[in-house]
Protein 1
Amino acid sequence: MREAALALFAQHGFAAVSMRQIAAEVGVQAGALYLYTKDKQSLLFDLMQSHMDDLLAAWQAEPKGDGALAHLEAFARFHIRFHLERPDAVFIAYMELRNLSDDNFAAIEALRRTYEGELEAILRAGHAESVIHAPDIRLTTMALIAMLTGVNTWYRDGGRLSRDAVADIYWDMVRGAVGA
Amino acid sequence: MREAALALFAQHGFAAVSMRQIAAEVGVQAGALYLYTKDKQSLLFDLMQSHMDDLLAAWQAEPKGDGALAHLEAFARFHIRFHLERPDAVFIAYMELRNLSDDNFAAIEALRRTYEGELEAILRAGHAESVIHAPDIRLTTMALIAMLTGVNTWYRDGGRLSRDAVADIYWDMVRGAVGA
DNA sequence: GTCTATATGCTGATAGAC
DNA sequence: GTCTATCAGCATATAGAC
């Protein structure tokens, strides 16, 4: 059910997908879905929370090397790799925030800020080491995340460039953007 | 009507907003809206098309200076200024593409590609002039647009930085990212 | 655990009065 | 030009049979 909901929400949007459509995709009747989720809102929240939990856990488990610059490269490559592996979940996590209830929104927002905080800490360390030159760390954090996440809007498997080639080029741009 | 629809679509999403809600915001009954739009789909399309037309016309009217680097700076500052001036329209133009009919989607997509083509042409000129160093112009185009458009996700008027200060910093990052 | 049936309410769009 | 009234259909969620 979660798999079917993820694909349908990503394609048509949460509000445009009915529980009947999800049920049809799974091969059951709509009523049966309520054995596995309290309601449609909880289903969306669970998908988004799982995605953010996976993201934070994967980053914690990532090898990061020594020094702020190595950390920054690890972050850029990790972010691109992780996001290209699950485009539907990424799409939902960014597009369906406004369809969350207030409480659920606050919870997801906290996870997102935690992840942004990881990059921000790297940039601050790089600034302290004088290997990164940025007039405003918080703003640079937002700019880099937007640039890296943007890969998902255009990258398609089987295209002109491999994922690794894309990561190489983006890492060059990240390095240039922070004057490293 | 268009003003009310723009605000409501941006806040709740096209699929989650009813014609009755729009009518209530305008102060009329739902049926009266159909004197001004053929249907809900046309209303969305008109909003998006107007936004893209405004964007392209404003860029054409923008003073651009001499040389590819001056052009690039003009583009970066223009993009940030224009997008910060109309956050609702920008939000809709990026988030509601999947709610367009096939024909309408193709039309909006063509306008979007035209705009991207403007930046791409600047980068190619800069590459020819050897003032820009980028291994893949198309990819750099997408990365820069994502970075610049990302301003809308976090910038709020009355915050720590003025729009001009933000544009200054972003222009520095754009210049660094293309090795200029 | 899944089904059918159903409650209650909202949806986009139209017809015709004024 | 705006209203009221309405059509036909779909929405979420639940109840109770099997």
Note: Chain B touches chain A through 35 residues (CB under 8 Å).
Protein 2
Amino acid sequence: MATIGAVAKQAGVSIASVSRVINGTAARADTEKRVRAAIDDLGYQPNSAARALKVRQSEQICLSFDDLSNPAYVLMTRGVGQTLSSSKYRLILSSAFSSVEEIVKHLETMGRGFADGLIISPIYSDPRIAELISQLKMPVVLVGTMPEGVNVDNVYVDSAAGLDMAIKHLVETGRKNIAFINGPVATNPGRRRKAAFEKSMKQLNLAFSNSSNLQAEAFTPEAGYRAISEFRDLKNFDAIICANDQLAAGAMKFCVEKRVAIPRDIALVGIDNIDLASLLRPTLTSVDLRAEERGQIAARLMLKRLANPDSPVKKITVQPQLIIRESSVA
Amino acid sequence: MATIGAVAKQAGVSIASVSRVINGTAARADTEKRVRAAIDDLGYQPNSAARALKVRQSEQICLSFDDLSNPAYVLMTRGVGQTLSSSKYRLILSSAFSSVEEIVKHLETMGRGFADGLIISPIYSDPRIAELISQLKMPVVLVGTMPEGVNVDNVYVDSAAGLDMAIKHLVETGRKNIAFINGPVATNPGRRRKAAFEKSMKQLNLAFSNSSNLQAEAFTPEAGYRAISEFRDLKNFDAIICANDQLAAGAMKFCVEKRVAIPRDIALVGIDNIDLASLLRPTLTSVDLRAEERGQIAARLMLKRLANPDSPVKKITVQPQLIIRESSVA
DNA sequence: TTGTACGCGTTATCAG
DNA sequence: CTGATAACGCGTACAA
């Protein structure tokens, strides 16, 4: 590979001049022209390792989350990727964190400086994670619930409000007995959605019990299918809210098989509004948590922070939106 | 951030010794112990830019493809990510290539050395792309159809065989008039699937014409919906094959709305076997192109090539599998 | 405006 | 087995 030295020789100038041309510092017109010609000629590309070593910047941003099999994270990744693609930063992806240990290990490697910033959406809460994030020397944008004691840029979606919208919508359309199929309550979303559900139900004076509140073992369709099959009697309910669309898809599948009519017998509402929601039959009413938009916002926050490291920490809250489809209205 | 020098001072040894301990070269037991203690103490992490500069390796692998909104690529990304996560390599993602220009630009930046290898799945064929890939100094694994004149590791799925399986399955289950909804024929998959469809149809002596061969403007459900609505009369057909599951989902939606019964009036078959296929109603018969597995294989090929740069070029062919579901059998 | 020379943090060579 | 030291390729004082 051609180095800056080779370009300098070819152009008959010093390496300093080549560097200046590349980095846009002043240079005489004809110098610049010769340098550019040499660069083209040799197909020169600045070595990123050398550059990174010198300027202490990798031009890379790391995006970390639990798992790419969740379409909501795919949407987020798309948002981040889109925004980053018009910047100088590359996207490095780090997913598949099945345990707190793995996140901790990953966070520790951040010290190597291979990324200038970290956008992270941790599914688990753990003091170690919070501690490590706080100690990172690089900018961090956290997507999701901020752990205790962490103070970084944050993009947050008010999923409680979303759940509330869903419940109110169901009540307004005449439903009275609402069940909830949650994901693992060991996760942040699981815990938060459980709390939000119970709060809204109480506020609206709606009855609910442990038996109307199921916990699936994952945020997947299969888990949703298994979860709904554990209800003693579906006839006790006229509506089910699922903690995400994938769970809802599984639940819907079960209903179809058991000839439970949706929405006539039971209304079904999901969360996330992934593409799937409009392809199911009946189409699925869902609370749009704007994952792609959150990804874009997170990336923009990161770019701003990188450009201006000392600006005050920002928290951006995204409002969910209820997308009403066939699964909840006759 | 602590440097290797700081560790050396703290441990009372030379930086060379620290380096040796880190890289596992011989060292006396007590030297090693002191160095390790110092490393722990200072929370030292080797700087990856400096290391990359010296050893000419970035420990990063770049995965490039068209677009993350296609679930098949998400599967592939998962496969690659999984395999890479148990290696020392990081995954850098480069998607959203809407034009040949962008791919060319991206390929040119590869010369910067920020990645040790490139796994690429180009949706477009272009001589410039082929040329650039051939000239890259780094290992490349190509997922998909090899362009003319390119000679790199390749993982290939015999989608023609898959299409053939689908057609035979339809014929065996009594279908006679088979239509094909293709994606953009400007793309590699589009072109190949068109050719494969026509070849299989001829071989089986099945009638088909231009009017039974539609071209959607993208590989999306919306495009599938619009495409199927352009058939003059659906009654002319008793089966439709779609170039991917997303197109099929759109087509299915249209059929549901128009009260065309699937599979009674029309059988529907998709390609890719993404999660969606088993969630649709009716569930969708689909040709599994094993995207996730191809991702794993591609990553493994890359790791092998990196470990052994001079081994002969490999081509691994993956066999598709027809997953029969409700949309094609009564 | 241009060129020389140094240093970024590592690894690897070569004497001891 | 260890320590001093020369690269790796680039950016930038500083001097011209």
Note: Chain A has three domains: 4-46, 60-157+291-318, 159-288+323-328.
Protein 3
Amino acid sequence: MVTIKDIAKVTGVSATTVSNVIHGRANRVSAETVEKINSAIKTLGYVPNMSARTLVSNSSKVIGYINHTIPKKTQNIIDDPFHSIFTNILEQKLREHGYYLMYRTVETSEELLTFLRTWNVDGLFFTGVFKDTFFEALSSIQIPVVLIDSYTEQLNVFNVGLEDYNGCYTSTKYLIDRGHRNIAFASPSIKESGVVKERFDGYCQALCDASIPFDKALVLESEMDYDSCKAVSDKLCKLSHVTALVTTADIMAANIMVHLKAGGKSIPDDISIVGFDDIALSRLITPPLTTIHQDIPLKGSLAVDMMLQKLEGNPPRHSQIILSTKLIERESVRSI
Amino acid sequence: MVTIKDIAKVTGVSATTVSNVIHGRANRVSAETVEKINSAIKTLGYVPNMSARTLVSNSSKVIGYINHTIPKKTQNIIDDPFHSIFTNILEQKLREHGYYLMYRTVETSEELLTFLRTWNVDGLFFTGVFKDTFFEALSSIQIPVVLIDSYTEQLNVFNVGLEDYNGCYTSTKYLIDRGHRNIAFASPSIKESGVVKERFDGYCQALCDASIPFDKALVLESEMDYDSCKAVSDKLCKLSHVTALVTTADIMAANIMVHLKAGGKSIPDDISIVGFDDIALSRLITPPLTTIHQDIPLKGSLAVDMMLQKLEGNPPRHSQIILSTKLIERESVRSI
DNA sequence: TTGTAAGCGTTATCAC
DNA sequence: GTGATAACGCTTACAA
């Protein structure tokens, strides 16, 4: 391994001078020496050692991308189209700015804190945090934290999210405007707060604004995978007065749709469906899914921008960015 | 930050002793001292500093997960269902064994080597490497390297892959057995070697074994995204004698299918299609896709197992694991 | 413009 | 059983 000392030895200068050149402190070194050192660095193939740097500088250039949804070991991990998009965008932009991405699953706040200190992590990305989860931890963290799709009032924390409430308000209203009155709602478990709760509230409000009484029996909470959605479809079939379904994810909509179709229901003739996300899938299924569009790459991109700004000491103007959504009309809804 | 020295001070012992306790060298320390130190570690919240450890031990516990398919900046990054599955499985298992996952894009061998030395990386995962790409680099690397879906003869490198050749041989033969003679082949760019090339060869061989002359005009190379697949669909429509299509990816099959259907073609009546991968999507589209199944989570899982074995000094018995594929019959193929 | 020396947190060697 | 001490590669006062 080639070290700074090796470069120093070869060029006949001190380690300090080499370090100065590496860090571009050209004013402290003669042009001639700079030249000499740079060429030695090239020919010897010197590569800075981040461990050493981290140790002395208390900055590791490591950014953590935290996964706190514990993958169920017994079950196949569902492929999440957001995940690969985010990872790629985060890594790409961070890399351009000299940072490194560590992907890490944590199950508890304590694990998180330990991880941070183990590596002297410089910054943290989190997705889908909501009230109380990691709350204490988050507030004690001294490094930049950027949340994605999170609902938590933390002054020291930044967030980029979506008009979740509006999104489902829009999709529900869209259905209402087309004559639907008995509209079911399918989503994963509705927590006390968070993305799903917001979307649910949007659904409720749209109902309310149209003077449609809320019916708890029409709220179908379920996992989003293929098998779980079979049950949702079954329930839906029994709810024969229901003519439309609002969902909080295209994946879920698609999974429900296959089962509905297999059960002899026709979409949108028997039941209209609107999704959420507008992932690639939504154009691929039959009928193509009317859905709420969100710009996932943009979300990732803005999140890194925020991170980079904090990292480089230019506090972003807003601690919160809320992206708008829009409804994409395709063919899974009919007017009645 | 709590250091080993702090623990030493508080407990009235030397840093060496603390280190010994941390590393479970209980024989070198009295039970009493062990107790004392452990409790101090707990109450003070000591967390080992990996940078310091790495520096002195030349082992970082960092495993690199290398992405060498440069995301096109101008284009939205396609969501890759493999990616999230792999990342999750790799991270989960590595974590259980005390390792950390860094995700990193490299564009050149040099970048790769630099990355390795920057962090003293302990092991490397790579997907989709084929002949000559990173060849020199890979052979010079002294740490465990596990490849996924790669075709490269490197003695020092391990690989877990698929029966790619058999997979497409099977899907092509399946079509032939059902009376098809004019069978097109759609895939991303066919390189000199690699997964796609193997699958292409399987297709060719099946044709050959059935004495069907190979027709270059039926080979449709294209990007796999929605828009690119429009062109494939258009070509297919012009090739009016073609009754079936073999593809190397479900995503591609699905994208081609939508355009075919939009163009008035009926699947499988006008054209039969078989996919590859058996991702969740294949059951969601209409008609459900007949495809070649592969066990993606298993692939990831075996790859980590190999890595862990190498890391822990139990060289795996095989340097290559080839998973089998099987054809899943659904409804995108008809007999003629 | 360049160099010396101390120190970051940890581990290994060797002595007691 | 326990503890000095040096060393890992690098940066930063502070000197010269």
Note: The domain at 62-163+296-324 of chain B is CATH 3.40.50.2300 (Rossmann fold).
Protein 4
Amino acid sequence: MTERVPYDPFSNPHPAVAVDVILFTIADGELRVLLIRRELPPFEDAWALPGGFVRADESLDEAAARELDEEAGVSVRWLEQLYTFGAVDRDPARRVISVAYFALIDALELSPRAGGDATDVRWCNVRRLPKLAFDHKQIVRYAHQRLRYKAEYAPVAFQLLPKDLTLSELQHVYEVIHGKALDKRNFRRKVLGLEILEPTGESRSEGRGRPAALYRFRRDRFRDLGGGVVLEF
Amino acid sequence: MTERVPYDPFSNPHPAVAVDVILFTIADGELRVLLIRRELPPFEDAWALPGGFVRADESLDEAAARELDEEAGVSVRWLEQLYTFGAVDRDPARRVISVAYFALIDALELSPRAGGDATDVRWCNVRRLPKLAFDHKQIVRYAHQRLRYKAEYAPVAFQLLPKDLTLSELQHVYEVIHGKALDKRNFRRKVLGLEILEPTGESRSEGRGRPAALYRFRRDRFRDLGGGVVLEF
DNA sequence: ACAAAAGTGTTGAGAGTACACCCATGC
DNA sequence: GCATGGGTGTACTCTCAACACTTTTGT
């Protein structure tokens, strides 16, 4: 408080700003995150979250969406800011703070492809992560925790499914996120009681068993998905 | 994804990183935030949240605590990261992203004093804010919302009170945060049922009326205050 | 004795949980 | 006709909300 000369970050050493994106999906009954293989040092050839530096003329939200698109070929309509990681030594080479975002996507909706500074892309089981660059393992754990927590009160699971869905598919998503089985009758009563699903009148047969009725998420009944940013592209 | 030359923030225009702190207290039955009067442009002489640029050798948490101490003479033991604001035009002069933190303090514990880049300090009713610099009004609103939400499940109110407290004082804090009256019996049953309060055996007389029993918050029963960072100074 | 704040129990409603069988279809 | 997944109701428990009077102190 005795300092009279203002600290000017534009003429002093200062942190750079990056964004990283944790993209979740569900496939083969597993919760998975999207990883890319880094082209550049530090951590050359290591697995990492898609992400990169924020440019002067774009918002954080835009930067996150752009990096996800560039490095993994994935476009999302919805992103939520997770946390900003700012430990001094989280990047061994230089000072970088990272604003982490997370997003959810229906696995069938896309096929990721490497691009930008990434030489490879893959989906990886959240519980079986390889060694990751920087503090990215910690970031993924934090994101998983937030996802579980969020799934308690927000209809996040709809992001992980196609537009038309069955109640069993929805229940399955919640079971994977929480890692435990749920009672079918209680689940259905609860979800239908929220009045955010409307029956399409159609049904879908999975080959064997009775065909399941299809529902559609009523976005208008639940405008706010709980803190996320809806991007308009 | 066709870009081959990596974007290097250290040799290109890039955002600077600041922290801002929303410090809440309760006084005279109002929820208040700490504001400082800016010495420097932009928004010279305007009211704003205490905050400033992050230095290369300190974490975000440390920067938030340092700025609060420098500009307002306030030391806190606990800070929680709120959100990172990154709109391109939030600072009219240059590109700055701001990592917002919030903290709670017992109003009697300190007397803020201006310092650093601040020429004045005051406590201000959350519902009657003056014009604020940058997007700080929006940040305060966001923080207030988070505080209400957080108060539902985390024992945040203890941060706003002295170590020894009465149940009526605690109830009063919750009433101010939520802006509505609570039932005394239900409140007491619920709080005592959490088993995070221990009676000190003492009591305190406020002059008139029956003296109230004093309690102390059992930190060991509730290690995590719900996402915050406990600073060790 | 009275004003002022502290303290104390019971009841009813709604939400969550546990639990088992019939239904529609493909093969 | 049988295997497979879809679809349905009821009873118990627990939590939350509503509600009014007695107790202790200072003046």
Note: Residues 166-168, 184-185, 188-189, 203, 206-213 of chain A lie near DNA strand D (CB under 10 Å from a C1').
